[in-house]
């Protein structure tokens, strides 16, 4: 696949693409599409320096003006949606619809951030002292480090970057070494704004291409005020203590083991469609992918019959082919992990449909798997693990209490859903004693979240929140300010002090 013309249209110079020691492969056919020169710690030091200098300038630019830059970036994304979406498909293996959806998500967060740029509101607070006023101000935080994963090579970065920029921060981005081209394209588009905005400092966006050592470097560097990392729980557990050791801030969006409870009153036609997209979409490689289905015993056979049919029919193939619903896994190691997991599921009493390798003409070296539907006798240790592949475990329940207990009895806590038309069941699921996840949905699957809400989850998912709602506050520092206009000096807490 020749990605050079596509990258050229997105503004990436071909000189960067062919000479380095880091091969970039497309999961579509496992062929090398570029060779980049990875950045060294010395490059990273320069990039961090530039980012810090950029912050010193940028924090002084009025937020609505910062928003104008993000607005123009969103417009660039609109213009380049088809090309950038295709690049995401080629590099991450997503089907075209999902590649485009990812760019749409970037556009949406830019729009959100533009609005936010005029709404970085603080509170006014009633003072206990006469002639005093209290207020909160939100100030830019500093350099925001973003570590992103292969499965959302652009959108998750954009959630962070668009907010960070309007909040007055600069961004140093370490993309997954599997998807650096998308990052270079996003950066080239951003760079092209420079001609329109004099105040856009060099260093507002720095991209570091390379492996884990660069993420470690960001975690350790005091200049990185906030480190936002998306990826596996193991990655989060490696980085977070390093950030904490220097008392830095981190935003973690780690693994999920997302479930859906299907109740007796559920609309099964709707549930079937939602389950298919959530479990098999993106070849099961979203943090929010549906991995566990907890079905009431009275409808389990009926639902399973429907699911077996759709699982048998789902089209697996080249993600650039418009008829394909399920593209490749990211690499052979992911396929081997899926195979091992299914063998273990069988060994512990699971009944497996699907999961076999699919040969795609012209893509023989790549890793295509049919999505697997696995009926399990119980929620074993294997089911509690996140396997980043299209495997859907099916469990049965009798009472809603039992279903919720099963639902919450995993280490992860990202996204969740319930299918029901019974108000008492959905309210219970959404209540304090229901789902313990950061995202809880009714009559839609756990994946495909909109940017307007805060995104993230609890427990092994890391606790961070990104994207919408008030997630922006994590990218700023809060100053609590008390102003005395009384001419006297009453002390708080009733203290009398003085001679
Ligand atoms: C991820 O899988 O890391 O909810 C992010 C979704 C997307 C984001 C997923 N909006 O599927």
UniProtKB/TrEMBL annotation:
Residues 22-478 form the Aldehyde dehydrogenase domain. InterPro entries: Ald_DH/histidinol_DH, Ald_DH_C, Ald_DH_CS_GLU, Ald_DH_N, Aldehyde_DH_dom, ALDH7A1-like. It holds the Pfam family Aldedh. The active site is at 253. CDD domains: ALDH_F7_AASADH (cd07130). Homotetramer. This is aldehyde dehydrogenase (NAD(+)).
